[in-house]
Amino acid sequence: MDFLQELTEKEEWQRGRFEEWMSMDDLVGLAIHGLGRCENVCFSRSSSGEDACACVRSVFPTPEHYETYLHARSFFLESLAKETFAQFVSVVSEGELND
Known about the structure:
elongated, 71% helix, mainly alpha
């Protein structure tokens, strides 16, 4: 893929010209498991940025879907951290009570 084609595809995606959709189940699954990215140097990511690279564009039909994912992912990770901390405090408290 050349640079001009990459930028054209990025701009089309940013304008939301795709008529694809994404199910709520898919969005929730991604929020829980996260979005995989290229592990190596990626031409698309270098050219279009992390938030509009081909990996993102291939999963999310529009930037709005991607933004919704980012909010859902952040909410999930914050909730997970709170629950993990609460469980840790509970285990520590029980250990102190038994001593």
